[in-house]
Amino acid sequence: MAITLYELAAADPDRRFSPFCWRIRLALEHKGLAFEGRPWRFTEKDALAFSGSDKVPVLVEDGRAIAESSVIAAHLEAAHPDRPSLFGGGAGVALTRLHVAWTDQVLHPALVPLLLLDIHRHLAEADRRYFRESREARFGKPLEAVCPDPEAQLASFRRTLSPVRAVLRAQAFLGGERPLYADFAVMGAFLWARGVSALALLEADDPVEAWRRRMLDRLGEGSRALVAG
Amino acid sequence: MAITLYELAAADPDRRFSPFCWRIRLALEHKGLAFEGRPWRFTEKDALAFSGSDKVPVLVEDGRAIAESSVIAAHLEAAHPDRPSLFGGGAGVALTRLHVAWTDQVLHPALVPLLLLDIHRHLAEADRRYFRESREARFGKPLEAVCPDPEAQLASFRRTLSPVRAVLRAQAFLGGERPLYADFAVMGAFLWARGVSALALLEADDPVEAWRRRMLDRLGEGSRALVAG
Questions:
Q1: Coil/strand/helix, residue B229
Q2: What PROSITE patterns does this protein map onto (chains A, B) (predicted)?
Q3: A128, A159, B103, B162 - which has most CB atoms within 10 Å?
């Protein structure tokens, strides 16, 4: 039952900053599955060639490679039904899709302008050019011009969280009394940010901040080492 | 097991336009519970006094009055566990909160500017002054000035739907293969709009439009009469 998770890393291999990789790391810890997290960099396409994917996360379990965070999560749920559930049943699988889609399509776009330059700064030398070129093509402007007003962007990011904030006023986790994959999807964004930036994304009295701290407190030992310092 | 649902109505009592009342109507139909929908108007506070609430929806079941759509939905689920579930289990209850919060805090605010004048036009005479005064106080401007650019507002409303659109590309309903309360929360917004406006909120090839039509097809007989024409 050997499990390996390929995770996006910066120049410092302990600086893991892909929100999608974090989802799977949190899911593996939730299920209590031992695994090795293997740092991988944007330009190391060859090291992933065996998997048929050119992006992480890639999970390898008993020699089988699985790519794409949602596919990996579904695999973990199906392969380890005796372990704590990621979704809380069939309706949970269906309902969690909104948490994931909202994170991908609303939360990440609100966050990425605040992090771009920090990510670039922390990357391995070989990755910097790839990162700059691919992101400048996506945004149609130099990295340095994507976020002309960080303060306004931060305020907008905080407003974006309003539906999650309302849920976390009513219950401890998005999944209820205990975190589920819905929590891991949203927390992935905060761990991504934490990996590269010292910016205080949330105000101290924000219910989302209290939840973020609860989630940090629950990290497994391996992850704790990665977010320390 | 007599059930009465007090629902917000326009001058025409068959024009029901509260998104929160629609949620409960759809929930009652989902559970296959017979009920009487009783039209109520903003200024008929006295008619609700017995319930302790001054707003609809109010549900009366076996002489017990329950207000607030989320409280009513929880009541229906607890009181009728033998009927089809609204949430699909405990995790479903917790996860559905995001669908509801997102509808309340993101979808409704994107929609309301497009509907304000239509709502006002359809109200009973006695309600119009109440509606204008309360909404103008909320928006800090005349009703006529809330939506200076309806085309831009419509485009923004459609963009707002992006996470729901992504979910409905992957599955037939927000609840999965069958609708759940998560669907009723979002559909309430579209039935609210349909009650007062002829505006085509969605493009014909939008997956959200295909879902909206599936939801319309599943309406019970009583609701079908209300949305006809």
A1: coil
A2: GST_NTER (PS50404)
A3: B103
Overall size of chain A counted in residues: 229
Average of pLDDT values for B144-164? 98
- Does some domain include residue B124? yes
Is A126 in the same domain as A187?
A: yes
Spatial contact of A182 and A174, defined as CB atoms under 8 Å apart = yes
Instruction: Report the Cα B178 to chain-centroid distance in Å.
Output: 19
* Percent of chain B topping pLDDT 90: 97
- Segment B152-167 shows an average pLDDT of 98
Give every CB contact of residue A90 below 8 A, 6+ residues apart in sequence: B88, B176
Helix (H) or strand (E) holding B80: none
Q: Is the peptide bond before B57 cis (omega within 30 degrees of 0)?
A: yes
Q: What is the pLDDT of residue A1?
A: 62
pLDDT of residue B1: 62
Q: Which residue of B has its CA nearest to A173?
A: B94
Say if residue A75 is in the same domain as residue A96: no
- Supply the pLDDT for residue A229: 56
ipTM: 0.97
Q: Residue A227's pLDDT is what?
A: 87
Provide the sign of the torsion angle of the four alpha carbons B182, A86, A212, A147, taken in this order. Answer: negative
Contact list, B104 vs chain A (CB under 8 Å):
163, 166
Give the β-pairing of A64-67 and B64-67. unpaired
Token pair of B57 as six digits: 């929806």
DSSP A84: P
Q: Name A16's bridge partners.
A: A9
Look at B164 and A98 and tell me if their CB atoms are within 8 Å. yes
**How many beta-carbon contacts under 8 Å exist across A and B?**
120
Domain that holds residue A57: 3-79
Order of strands across the sheet that contains A64-67: A36-40, A3-8, A58-61, A64-67
CA B77 to chain centre: 18
In whole angstroms, what is the distance from residue A141 CA to residue A143 CA?
6
In this complex, which of B91, B162, B164 lies closest to A180 when CB atoms are compared? B91
- Tell me, yes or no, whether B105 and B163 share the same domain: yes
Contact (Cβ atoms closer than 8 angstroms) between residue A223 and residue A24: no
- Chain A interface, best mutation among B95, B108, B169, by max A CB count within 10 A: B95
| Mean per-residue pLDDT, B103-122 | 97
